[in-house]
Amino acid sequence: MSLPTPATPEAVFTYAAPRLKFGPGAVSEIGHDVAGLGARSALVVTDARLAATGHPERVAEALRSAGLRAEVHDSAAVEPSDASLQEATDWARKNGPWDAIVAVGGGSSIDTAKAIALMTTNDGDLVDYINAPVGGGKNPTKPLVPVIAVPTTTGTGSESTTICVLDVLEANVKTGISHASLRPRLAVIDPQLTMTQPSGVTAAAGMDILCHALESYTAKPYTEFAAKRAEQRVPYCGANPISDMWSREAVRLLATSFRTAVADGDDVDARGAMALAATFAGMGFGNAGVHVPHACAYPIAGMVRDFRPDGYDADHPMVPHGMAVAMTAPAAFALLYPTDPGRHHEMAALLEPDTAGSDLGRDALPDALRRLMRDIGLPNGLVALGYSHNHLPQLVDGAMKQQRLLATAPVDITETDVERVLRDSMTLW
C-alpha cells in the first residue's frame, strides 16, 4: 500500500508558525502586543456565551489601556456558516476600519476573525474564496490586517493554522478557506482562560488536538510529492521533520493530561498541558496537513439533523468538529496502517505508554483511540449521531469533495476506501 514515486520528487519543505506567547496571565499583556504591531484600533471578535464571562471585555480594556480604540463584537456562531461570517463581516465593515482583529474564544471565534480580516481587506464575495469545488478557491490579492488569536478552548489549533472552517448552508456542506495569509500574526495562549471549558467541550476539542497530531504524523511525506516551483507551494506540504517533532510532543502531552482534564476541569496542570498540546498539534498539522478523518468529518458535521452534544450552548443540532473527526479515526488508521506500521506503532505507544515495547499490530492505534473515546464519554460511533448505512452515499460524496485534505493522505484515497472507513465507524465498541 504505497504511492508511486514521482519522476522528480520534492526536496524542499516549508514551515511557518505565528508568534507565540504562552503562560498563565499572558493575556494581560495583549495591549502591549497589539500596539507593538502598529495598530491603533482593534475589533475583538467572540461569541455571546463567552462574552457573558467578561473575558472579551477585559481584553478590550487591556487594548484601550494601551491607547487603542477597541470594540467587542459577539456574533461568532458556535459553528460558523457562510451566513454568520457574512453578518460579522458586514458589521465590521460598517463600524471599521480596523487595524487588527483580536479573536477571543474557540476555533469558531478565531475562524470568524480570519474571515473578517480577509473580507474587510479584499474585494469580492465570501464564496469566491471558499475552497474549490464548493467555492471559487480565489487567493487574496491584498494584505490582510493582522489577526491575534486568544484561544479559550483547547482543541482546534486555529491559532496556528491557515484555515477558516465554515458551513455552506445551501449546499449542506462543511468546507473551508485556506491561504497562508489567514495564519494569525500572534497567538496568546493563557491556560487560565480554558478553566471554564465544559467537560463535553474538552472531550471533543481534545480529540481534535489528537487527530491533528496523528494525521499530520501519518500524512504523505513531503518527499513523496512531485517537486514544485516556488509559486506553487502551499501551507500543507506533507509530513516533515519539524511537523513530526510538534506532533510527537502533542501526543506525549495528551497521554498524561487528556483524561484528567475531562474528569477534572479544575486541574491546572492538565489544562496547561492540553493548551500546549493544542498549539503544538496546530504547528504540526498547520504545515504537514491532515487527511482522512478530517475529510470525513466535514459531511458528518454538515449533514447533522437532530444530535445535540453535551456542553455546547447551541440552539440547533450540531456535531462538534473534534467529535466528527474522532468518529472515523479508528477505522481510518486501520485502513492506513500498511503505509507505515512503524509510525502507527510509535503513536500508539506514545498514547498508551504502558504498551511501549509490546508486540504492536494493526489494531494498536485504533484500539487505543477507542479506549480513550469511551473513557472521555464520546458517542459510540455514527449511529449515535443519527446516521445509518442509508446515509453512506451522501457521506462518501461529502468526504470525497475534500480533495485538498485527501491529497495529504499517504495513499490515493478512493470512494471505496472512504465507504469502508465510514461503514466501520457506525459503531465503535
Provide a compact summary of the structure.
The chain is built from 16 helices and eight strands. The chain has 429 residues and is α/β, with parallel strands linked by helices.
Oligomer: single chain
Under the CATH scheme, the architecture of the largest domain is Up-down Bundle
Q: Average pLDDT across residues?
A: 93
- Return the structural class: alpha/beta
Q: Report how far apart the termini are.
A: 27 Å
CATH H-level superfamily title of the largest domain = Dehydroquinate synthase-like - alpha domain
What order do the helices and strands follow?
Answer: EHEHHEHEHHEEEEHHHHHHHHHH
SSE order and pairing:
Blueprint: E1 19-22, H1 30-35, E2 41-45, H2 48-51, H3 55-65, E3 69-73, H4 82-95, E4 100-105, H5 107-119, H6 126-129, E5 147-151, E6 163-168, E7 173-178, E8 186-189, H7 199-217, H8 241-263, H9 268-288, H10 292-302, H11 321-336, H12 341-351, H13 364-375, H14 392-400, H15 403-406, H16 415-423
Parallel strand pairs: 1-8, 2-3, 2-4, 4-5, 5-8
Antiparallel strand pairs: 6-7
Helix pairs in contact: 4-5, 7-8, 7-9, 7-11, 8-9, 10-11, 10-14, 11-13, 11-16, 12-13, 14-16
Which characteristics define this entry?
single chain, 429 residues, alpha/beta, Rossmann fold, Dehydroquinate synthase-like, alpha domain, 2 domains, six-stranded parallel beta sheet, two-stranded antiparallel sheet, 16 helices, 44% helix, 10% strand
Explain how this protein is built.
The chain has 429 residues and is an alpha/beta fold. It has two domains: 26-189, Rossmann fold, CATH 3.40.50.1970; 199-423, Dehydroquinate synthase-like - alpha domain (Dehydroquinate synthase-like, alpha domain), CATH 1.20.1090.10. 44% of the residues lie in helices and 10% in strands. It has helices spanning 30-35, 48-51, 55-65, 82-95, 107-119, 126-129, 199-217, 241-263, 268-288, 292-302, 321-336, 341-351, 364-375, 392-400, 403-406, 415-423, and strands spanning 19-22, 41-45, 69-73, 100-105, 147-151, 163-168, 173-178, 186-189. The strands form two sheets. The protein has a six-stranded parallel beta sheet, with helices on both faces. Strands 6-7 form a two-stranded antiparallel sheet. Strand 6 and strand 7 (173-178) form a beta hairpin. Helix 8 (241-263) runs antiparallel to helix 9 (268-288), helix 10 crosses helix 14 (392-400) and helix 12 (341-351) runs parallel beside helix 13 (364-375). It is globular, with a radius of gyration of 20 Å. It starts with 18 loop residues before the first strand and ends in a 6-residue tail after the last helix. The mean pLDDT is 93.
